[in-house]
Design goal:
The complex is a heterodimer of chains A (467) and B (189). In chain A, 73% of the residues lie in helices and 1% in strands. Chain A has helices at residues 16-22, 26-54, 67-99, 106-128, 142-164, 173-193, 201-236, 243-256, 272-284, 286-299, 311-333, 336-342, 346-375, 383-415, 422-428, 430-459; strands spanning 2-4, 12-14. Chain B has 189 residues and is mainly α. In chain B, 42% of the residues are buried. The chains are: A mainly alpha (467), B mainly alpha (189).
Chain lengths: 467, 189
Amino acid sequence: MTTVVTKGAPAKPTVRVAETALHEDRSAFAFIIVAALFFVVSGLVAIIIAAKLQFPTLLGGVSWLTFGRLRPIHTNGMLFGWLLAADMGLCYYLIPRLCGVPLWSEKLGMSTLALWVVIILGAVVTLATGFNQGLEYAELPTWLDILVVTAWVMFLINIFATVWTRKYQQMYVSIWYIMGAILWTAFVYIVGNYGTLFTTGVNQANLNWFYVHNAVGLIFTPLGLGIGYYYIPVAAETPLYSHRLSMIGFWSLAFVYVWTGAHHMLHGPISQWLQTVSILFSVMLMIPVWTLVWNFLATMKGQWHRLRDNVPIKFLMTGTIFYLLTCFQGPMHALRAVNAIVSKTDWIVGHAHMAVLGAFSFFAIGGAYYSVPRMLKTRLHSEALADASFWLWLVGGLSFFVSLWIGGFLQGLQWNDTSIPFIDTVKFMYPFWAVRLVGGTLMFVGILLFFWNMVATYNYRHQRPVA
Amino acid sequence: MLKNIDKSSALFVIAAVAFFAVGGVLTTVAPPLLDASWSKPAPGLKDYASLAAQGDEEAKTIMAGRAIYVAEGCWYCHTQQTRTIEADTIRFGWRDQRSPVSTPDEFVYDAPHMFGTRRVGPDLSRVGGKYDSQWHATHFRDARSLVPGSVMPPFPWITGNPQKLAEVTAYIQSLGRVKDWRPEHDYEE
């Protein structure tokens, strides 16, 4: 029997024996395995476009293999094909357990996945053939946007109906984050993909950055944190440090995050007062971030020895540190003086990758390593391979992020020295881009190991039954 | 009431949407209403989309070129904004002429906007007229023959198609011209 207990709040017991009978986990597992497959594909595209900065003519004769066509496939593939699908899979696993009831409808879950696969394949074809709407993260044509909203409503119904029929009255913090993410995503996605169609110029750019920033801040952040709040206590077999801190973190996030979109246009052609508003709220984001990180780290008190051999905990705690770092960078970039150096450079690329690939993917991977064997009522195929994938991601990720920070920061300083020709600042980046390519390749090997481990866990599940 | 917010899912839903809606409305709907400069076109700014719809040949060519710029993802590596940073005005000016800072009224008819976030290559907010069209044709074919060290890819399916090449070049040459900042020297004239 495992328990998720919060100090000062009633326990949330989930009984393992009953679980086996209660939870089917078909939708949960299917989402994760499909997400892992898209992780492989998007990772391969990533390697190609990183290599193109070393060899600009690589595959240059083929229109659909150029940088400008592959980049949106990479970003959309990682965000929606891998991370969002993986997060949805984990939600299908943890929400029923926190509610003490089965998922409302496995059929609806599987239909949602079928639609999701159609969306991702449609996205690859339209982007490769140059049907690009020209707005970051909103590149997909309107008919695909409609399918995305449809799939999201199906997901919403399934999760909310499960919560509605829950057995435990008090909702654990993960449920809030996930319900919040589902609600906010509906608004954020519609503004970014439909609101932008009826606007032009700076007005449109403002809605675009509202969407881009909140895609990370109000979709991937609350989903990732909800996942972290569930898996850190269960994987470390310890109660959450503080229910009250988690409340402060959640409600401050809900209020503060949405104001910050205009910081993507600092020093740009957008009203100064709006820039100042976005800076103030960007700095205030430290409140939800630091309360959450404090809560996660304090939960591990007395459990740190588990970092030695508990692979999910390795991912979850490293993800926590990456989250703290990336969310310290964010408010700093929003300061005008810092922004004048780092904006438009590769520093920001390093920052964005640490958020999506470092923090939130680490949470999702940790969750997948923990729960996929439990979904299949078996054990993980190989702990050693899982551990190897962790070290590949950690070493590859750090070399990727750090090289882009150093190179990007120095390039930003060079841009502000107008005696240096622009092309010299490009050539300056070559060695940093080379390190990024090597780091990215290490991470890609980690992705392959992860995918193989998931497939093998499924294939050999009957040989390793859990009593 | 707030004490029980983690027990009632209906109460939670209302509060979560309300907390979000305050900033959501004030940062998306309010700014264009408060700041008229966002929707007031600069004097002389051409609405190429409307002109093209009326059959204007030059506007049609420029809009077709803009569509190529959007489809090929040029905007992933090139920004179109001279920011309020001195180095931007010097670096993306021309010889001793500084590039005027970009203002919202220059972009009133832009959809999709092409401000961009990343400068793998230089900013293009004032590139119109800086280089002659033959230079651009060569640059699209093989950027490194003109700018050694450049990482811009070749675009053979554009340079091999005279119409497409003319369209995308016409678009590039139209950029940043609404501010009459460099009247004395233009390779195109």
